[in-house]
Amino acid sequence: MKRLEEQEQKYSAELDAALTEYTGLREQAQSVDPVQLYETKQTIRPVKEQEAENRAQQVYGEKYSPLLMFDSKKTVSRMLHEDIERQAVRRMVRQTQKEQHLNKRKNKGPER
Questions:
Q1: What does the alpha-carbon distance between residue 1 and residue 48 come to, in Å, rounded to a whole number?
Q2: Which has the closest alpha carbon to 74: 56, 55, 49?
Q3: What local confidence, expressed as pLDDT, does residue 109 receive?
Q4: Residue 105 and residue 89 in contact, taking contact as beta carbons nearer than 8 Å
Q5: Residues 91-100, mean pLDDT to the nearest whole number
Q6: What does the pLDDT read at residue 81?
Q7: Is the dihedral angle over the CA atoms 51, 54, 60, 63 positive or is it negative?
Q8: pLDDT in tens, 23-51
Q9: Where does the chain have alpha helices with state H?
Q10: Which residues touch 29 (CB under 8 Å, ≥6 apart)?
């Protein structure tokens, strides 16, 4: 039990460090296209989540809880404000599509 508590503290500290690094990278990413950044993160995320889940299973063995892992993923998502980000990206995509549609109509000119 003591070993598990020590590992939990270690991984908690690693998570805090990763979140701090993420915040810094997020600030740097302000000049990057948000839609492209979101799509790239969505491509990378499943692999990284699976790696983390596999590692947790190795560390906790029988004590591993899929439900706790699910809750942890949700907590991280909330901490990273991913729902807000997802909604913002969807708005941007819709706005871009709307503008493209309007530009197509303008470029066609009046129909006869």
A1: 27
A2: 49
A3: 61
A4: no
A5: 89
A6: 87
A7: positive
A8: 888 888 778 888 888 888 899 999 999 99
A9: 2-28, 34-60, 66-79, 82-108
A10: 37
Number of Cβ atoms within 10 Å of the Cβ of 49: 14
CB-based burial label for 84 (10 Å; 0-12, 13-18, 19+): exposed
pLDDT of residue 108 exceeding 80: no
Round to whole Å and give the CA distance between 38 and 85. Answer: 8
Please state the separation of Cα 104 from the chain's center in Å.
34
Chain centre distance of CA 54 = 19
What pLDDT shows up at residue 111?
56
Closest CA to 80 of 43, 32, 45, 33: 45
Q: What is the DSSP letter of 81?
A: T
Stated pTM of the model: 0.53
Q: Average pLDDT in the 67-92 region? A: 90
Tokens of 99: 């503008």
Buried b (16+ CB within 10 A) or exposed e, 60-79: eeeeeeeeebeebeeebeee
